[in-house]
Amino acid sequence: MVQAYHAVPVSVEYEDADNGRPTDHEGSALLGSGTSGVGIAKSEVQKEGHATLTSSVGNLANTIIGSGMLTFPRALASSGIIPGMLTCAFCGAVSAFSLYLLSTCGRHAPHRRSSFFAIATLTFPRAAVFFDAAIAIKCFGVSISYLIIIKSLLPNVVASLYHDLSSPDTNPPAWALSGRIWISLVMVVLVPLSYLRRLDSLRHTSYIALFSCAYLVLIVVLCYFRPIEGMTPPGEVHLIKFTPSFLSTFPIQVFAFTCAQNLFPIYNELKSNSQKRMNIVIGTAIGSTTLTYEIIAVFGYLTFGSHVSANIIAMYPSTSLFIAVGQLAIAILVIFSYPLQVHPCRNCLDKVFHFESANDKLDDEAVADEHVAGELTPLKHTLLTAAVVGGGFTIAYFVDNLEMVLSFVGATGSTTISFILPGLLYWKLTKDDPNKNKLLNLSALVLAGYGSLILVFCLSYNIYNVVHPAIGNGLA
To answer: Which intervals carry biased composition (Basic and acidic residues) (predicted)?
Structure first.
């Protein structure tokens, strides 16, 4: 049996973001049977956010940017410059709209306790635990893919740097070319970062990761104006030319903006999290990443034309120290993006496991209060983090390629988190409100429908690749 929760308005005093003066904010609290609304309100008021706009933008942008940006020049090659740039901007705009809907939904949850589970409990209570399970699986899969990328990339980086910084006749030691050794060493850094409770604590690593991304942009732009010896000669360049590979590159553009799993933690931790300030965070993060993708896509495509591959950094000769450092920058970017997947995965698993615990003890008021507050006990925090990090490391250590499995996880999980849930949750919360914005309410439903179409298309495409791998690879 699912425990029912309802929204109770709570008057909360907090500092207004625009003028710095205390104002009355009409919030909501999810209350289980036997929970005191006044008690929850007082405890929540004391827990204000401390994250700045800069750190919030940095963490959200780092959640967005990943290895997918390396494929954007290939996306332009599949459709031409103009359609490729338009689809990139479209995907960014749709992602920004979905994040806006989620941020407005967050105001219906307990003060500083917004989450997919909290909002789903208000809208689709029987499905709330399944939503969190889907998010956890998706984030866990992405975290594994990051470790596999690190495992395959760092040995190449070492070989390139060793070639450039030492005698050409000498080779690096065998251990330095072992991917398994490298991910074992990297875990020394990642484990402490993964145990951090607040997303804002990862702001410094996000800044480093974004600097690494800027270095890649520098490589792509400079190598267009001053090509390096040994580069592949450019092929044809078209303003508009659709090819069959567009079917595989468009979903990559769609999923390159996935970051909704960290929207609620950022919302909860942002100081004075008014909608205006959240709009600044969302707009800046999406706008900057869209601009980054566009620059990499255009200059990468203009440099190599129709000969561009699905990994733009691999197109440049690693015999150049400038390029070798760029490969290291990509590795750093992926390394510091890993904790941003562990954080939401752990939180969602807590909701999934606590859901069962709460249902077994519906009469236990303490359990209900903990369920509302959403705090992880030190023991649960330790165990869940160890399970996520340890399980992901074990899989990545022994497996070299999870591409097919992750493609199915991405097609279902990313689409659900990024489009279907934001649209459905906002639509459900506002559909009976007499003062609702009818156009916005309808647009939210359209977003959910768009996500459903993307899900069906990507699933169908993945199944087709499994059944007809030769044809599928040809399209890609």
So the answer is: 18-27
Q: Could you tell me how far CA 407 lies from the centroid of its own chain?
A: 15
Residues 321, 99 contacting (CB under 8 angstroms): no
**DSSP tag of 29:** E
Question: Within 10 A of 361 (CB to CB), how many other CB atoms are there?
Answer: 14
Pick from 211, 257, 205: which is nearest to 66 by CA?
257
The dihedral over CA atoms of 77, 309, 142, 285, expressed in degrees to the nearest 10, equals -50
Q: How far is CA 296 from the centre of its chain?
A: 19
Q: What is the pTM of this model?
A: 0.83
CATH H-level, domain 50-475: superfamily: Amino acid/polyamine transporter I (1.20.1740.10)
Q: What is the pLDDT of residues 31-60, one digit of tens each?
A: 333 333 333 333 333 357 789 999 999 999
Task: Determine the Cα–Cα distance for residues 257 and 294; give it in Å rounded to an integer.
Answer: 13
Distance between CA atoms of residues 145 and 396, nearest Å: 8
Higher per-residue pLDDT: 71 or 472: 71
Q: Single out the residue of 282, 271, 255 nearest to residue 103, CA to CA.
A: 282
Paired strand residues for 29: 8
Which among 375, 393, 380 has a CA at the least distance from the CA of 148?
A: 393
CA distances from 204 to 50, 174, 337 (A): 15, 33, 12
Could you tell me what percent of the chain has a pLDDT over 70?
A: 82
Per the model's pLDDT, the better-predicted residue between 411 and 135 turns out to be 135
Which DSSP helix (H) or strand (E) runs through 24?
strand 22-31
pLDDT tens digits, residue range 293-336? 999 999 999 999 999 988 898 888 877 788 888 888 999 999 99
